[in-house]
Specification:
Layout (H helix, E strand, L loop, with lengths): L3 H46 L7 H12 L6 H8 L4 H11 L3 E3 L9 E3 L6 H32 L3 H62 L1
Antiparallel strand pairs: 1-2
Helix pairs in contact: 4-6, 5-6
């Protein structure tokens, strides 16, 4: 005898798989189109930024904000990051790490980049990262304590279910929130490391150029 229930389940699974495949293809196409648009905008903006004619300050500021996706981006910072060997990586670290950075011309700055006064000490940043890491682990592990805690607090299954239903999302949100804060500090440190590395490479390149010119002059 033909099993209509099993057939209906197979049809449902097939339709679901087809729907998932369609959504995946649409998301992939959207991602490719977005990358193409970003490439087109970046190409036009860099051509105008590095052109002979001076770009209007308003357009320069808005272009730097658009290329980083941050309305508070500092144009001087963005222009230097675009000159690094890995500008895409630097820009991706700049947006989350900018909270801990500032534009400065003092002795501790590198190409205008410097940690804000409160975060310039390494031990301060290490303490901050340690705190965020500890809280992240605490809330992540808290999800394991929710079921036994619910059983200990409530006898009614309905109340236990409501408690777990509300506690799991809170624990997950807190975990991801403090993990995000931890990543912001790490992004700022990685960006400053990349900037210092680029500065040292630039100095080495300039030194080699001067030596070459001196050798040609002596010859």
């Amino acid at each position: 005898m033909f099993d209509w229930g099993a057939a209906a389940q197979l049809v449902t699974v097939a339709i679901s798989l087809y729907g998932v495949r369609k959504i995946y293809l649409e998301m992939s196409l959207t991602s490719r189109n977005r990358i193409r648009e970003e490439y087109k905008f970046a190409k036009e903006f860099l051509a105008e930024l590095r052109g002979e004619s001076r770009l209007d300050p308003f357009l320069r500021e808005k272009g730097c904000q658009a290329i980083t996706g941050d309305s508070r981006a500092i144009p001087e910072h963005v222009e230097y990051l675009l000159s690094l060997q890995a500008p895409s990586q630097a820009l991706s670290q700049y947006s989350p790490g900018k909270k801990y950075l500032e534009h400065s011309d003092d002795a501790q700055s590198v190409h205008g980049f410097a940690f804000k006064k409160w975060y310039r000490k390494v031990w301060v940043r290490a303490l901050l990262k340690g705190w965020y890491c500890t809280v992240t682990i605490f809330f992540g592990a808290a999800s394991l304590w929710i079921p036994p805690l619910a059983n200990a607090m409530f006898q009614d299954k309905h109340r236990r279910f409501i408690f777990a239903l509300t506690s799991f999302p809170v624990s997950a949100c807190c975990t991801f929130f403090f993990l995000y804060l931890l990543s912001r500090v790490a992004s700022a440190e990685l960006l400053m490391t990349q900037i210092r590395s680029g500065s040292q490479q630039g100095k080495g390149k300039g030194r080699r150029t001067r030596l070459k010119r001196n050798a040609e002059f002596a010859g």
